[in-house]
Amino acid sequence: MPNYPLIIEQWFEQTFSTPLFNIGGENISILWILKAIMLLIFVSLLARGTKRFLKNYLLVLLKIKEGTREVIATLTGLGLGTLGYIIVLQGLGLDLASFAVVVGGLGVGIGFGLQEITKNLVSGLTLLGESKLKVGDLIEFQGHLGYIQEISLRSTVIRTLQGSQLVIPNTDLTSQPVENWNYENCHGRIEISIGVAYNSDLLLVTELLLESAFLEKEVLSDPSPKVVFIEYGDNALIFELWVWVTNIENRQCIKSSLNFIIEYKFRQGGISIPFPQRELWLRNVDSLPLTKVKTVSNEQSSSSHITLKDSLQSFPCFQHLNELELRKLIEVGTRRYLKKDETFIHQGEYDSYFYIILSGQIQAIYETKKVSRILFTFNQGQSFGELPLLLEIPYPTTMIASEDTHLFLLAKTCFQDLLNQYPYLAQEIASELAKRQEILEDYQNNLKEMGLIDDDSLKNPVVWIRQRLSQIFSL
User: Fold this and answer.
1) Angle (CA) 465 471 475, round 5°
2) What are the pLDDT digits (tens) for 10-32?
3) Per-state percent for the chain, helix, strand, coil, to nearest 5
4) What kind of architecture, by CATH, is found in domain 133-180?
5) Which CATH number fits domain 188-269: 3.30.250.10, 3.30.70.100, 3.30.2380.10, 3.40.50.300?
6) Superfamily (CATH H level) for 308-473
7) DSSP 224
8) What is the b/e burial string over 22-45, where b = at least 16 CB atoms within 10 angstroms of the residue's CB?
9) Residue 220: half-sphere exposure toward Cβ, Cα within 13 Å
10) pTM of the full structure
């Protein structure tokens, strides 16, 4: 009777151990190839793991800069991988000295076909070795602004400010100009060009531009802003405002803010910004057909639409804000539209927003297993949400829109920044809340039962609320 296991074992041994060809004095079989592949994969994984360990853990603990970490980790991984490959091939009996002659001959031909890859490899080593460009640097290349995310041997990955990843061959970075904003620091200069009318008071223009620069908190005082008279333009006198900022990455937002401020300051100071004007000559005007155009007066157009600015200015807490301050408020706030009978906060839920009712009506309903009653109603121009923010407790009522409602929302952090910037708002909010004595008493009695406040705090709710504002928002 034949011994099948032995037959199968002999077949596998003959199949996998039989030499296929000879290289460098070593007989190459299927088993040899499998061993080589497994060992080379192991070496590759070990080299990659070592690179990640150095970059993300060991070198971080040693407090080495991000760019230097990338260089050390990449070169160490490359060196470990190369050494591992040599050890594996020699350990399997391959004579690399005799094999080098063959590889050298093939390398000449292959090199001509892989010139670009070779250039990128050399450029990658150059970038890593020189450290002129490092991981984390903010660079500008061919109109793209972003941070270097990774430098590999073939290419470099740039994370643009729009959030995409831009892959650039290393040869392009080493052969073309690259603007590195992080070479020493991330400071940079922003230039804003503006034209004024020929009859303008140039001293006043300079003064208003400098005032505008100092109103923007991102602008550095050293070096100080500078106003430069550029030229006599066709339609205007051209000036430039130069300002220096700490983080040039935010230059578009800073430039936008400065443009808003300059426009406001010029309008207040009576400085006009001219625009190109052209004269149009018409011939045979009498032969043109005349058509009646329906016009709408300014009063009618303005009364048909109430802007968000007007709505906020009608709110007591924001009556003293000027246009620039209102613009910042509008920028940080969000809007929310509620349909009739829509519930947006349930009783017992936490919420971290300060609400202003632009239009519509909100009802606060207290619910139990037996009853459901309306405690109070908020109408257009009123606000709510201060007490849950101040006390850091859930809503005691369910908030429902009794009609179509438009809300303006300020998140807790935005509300905090607003109170920090304009401390008088805390007093006004406290005064508005003090008018809701019935609601305050319910909150205060609950806190008293919990032992969080004493009788002295109940005597003057305005003082108590203002103190609570200072505690929560560190005013």
Assistant:
1) 95
2) 666 666 667 666 665 667 777 77
3) 50, 20, 30
4) Roll (2.30)
5) 3.30.70.100
6) Jelly Rolls (2.60.120.10)
7) P
8) eebebebbeebeeebeebeeebee
9) 16
10) 0.57
